């Protein structure tokens, strides 16, 4: 056993690369994952609900999109596939996750449209037409609020953020906190114990 978590910057866990297969919006994906990253062996159930229930970008979507906590890159790769004219920024504190996301973006021929970065390395002047996240609830409520308070203000005036949170891990309390913080929040859908939240200014 190690002390590694998916939010560890440099996981010491042996990589053990593996293939993860899933289908979103009629498209099949085969991406590479490994130990030491979030949901290393499968598409996380919350991520699956988010990609199934939220409104995926259209082919005509342009501008910059953000995936907060990209892991091995399933959300990033779906966004890049759905919106070939957009730039997708993939942010994660985990170096191995960033490497996997970059490799998976290349695997789907989207390397030129995907920018992978550590949080502190993303240019400060970029604003986002869409923000997507299955946020790392287990870092703790205070840290989660700090994370969202860092990224949500970078939403463009007419932008939209899509978040998925398990109800039993505080999905409803996060909804209330977002509203109290001045955001417009709609519970867009619920499935398998997860809340999909649509957040706008």
Describe the structure.
The protein is of the alpha/beta class and 201 residues long. It has a seven-stranded mixed sheet with strand order 5-4-3-6-7-9-8, sandwiched between helices. A two-stranded antiparallel ribbon has the order 1-2. Mean pLDDT is 93; it is low at 1-6. β1 (18-24) and β2 (27-33) form a beta hairpin. The protein has helices at 45-53, 74-82, 95-107, 141-151, 171-180, and strands spanning 18-24, 27-33, 63-68, 86-91, 114-117, 128-133, 155-166, 184-191, 194-200.
- Discrete helix count: 5
Assign an overall shape: globular
Number of strands: 9
Q: Which consecutive residue ranges, at least 5 long each, have pLDDT under 50?
A: 1-6
Taken as a percent bin, the fraction of beta residues is 25-35%
- In angstroms, what is the radius of gyration? 16 Å
Helix/strand structural class: alpha/beta
Oligomeric state: single chain
The helix fraction, in percent, is: 25-40%
Mean pLDDT: 93
Reading the helices and strands in chain order gives EEHEHEHEEHEHEE
Largest sheet: 7 strands, mixed
CA-CA gap between termini:
43 Å
Strand order of the largest sheet: 5-4-3-6-7-9-8
Question: Can you give keywords for this protein?
Answer:
7-stranded mixed beta sheet, alpha/beta, about 200 residues
Topology of this structure?
Blueprint: E1 18-24, E2 27-33, H1 45-53, E3 63-68, H2 74-82, E4 86-91, H3 95-107, E5 114-117, E6 128-133, H4 141-151, E7 155-166, H5 171-180, E8 184-191, E9 194-200
């Amino acid at each position: 056993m190690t002390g590694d978590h998916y939010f560890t910057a440099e996981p010491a866990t042996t990589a053990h690369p593996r293939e993860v297969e899933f289908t979103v919006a009629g498209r099949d994906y085969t991406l590479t994952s490994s130990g030491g990253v979030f949901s290393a062996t499968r598409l996380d159930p919350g991520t699956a609900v988010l990609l199934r229930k939220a409104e995926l970008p259209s082919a005509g979507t342009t501008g910059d999109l953000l995936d907060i906590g990209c892991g091995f890159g399933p959300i990033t790769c779906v966004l890049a596939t759905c919106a070939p004219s957009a730039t997708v920024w993939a942010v994660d504190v985990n170096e191995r996750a960033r490497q996997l996301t970059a490799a998976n973006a290349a695997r789907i021929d989207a390397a030129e449209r995907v920018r992978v970065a550590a949080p502190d390395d993303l240019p400060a002047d970029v604003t986002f037409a869409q923000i997507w996240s299955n946020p790392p609830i287990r870092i703790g409520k205070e840290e989660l609020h700090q994370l969202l308070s860092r990224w949500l203000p970078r939403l463009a005036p007419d932008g939209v953020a899509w978040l998925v949170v398990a109800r039993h891990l505080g999905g409803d309390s996060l909804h209330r906190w977002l509203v109290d913080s001045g955001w417009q929040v709609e519970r867009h859908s619920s499935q398998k114990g997860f809340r999909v939240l649509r957040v706008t200014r």
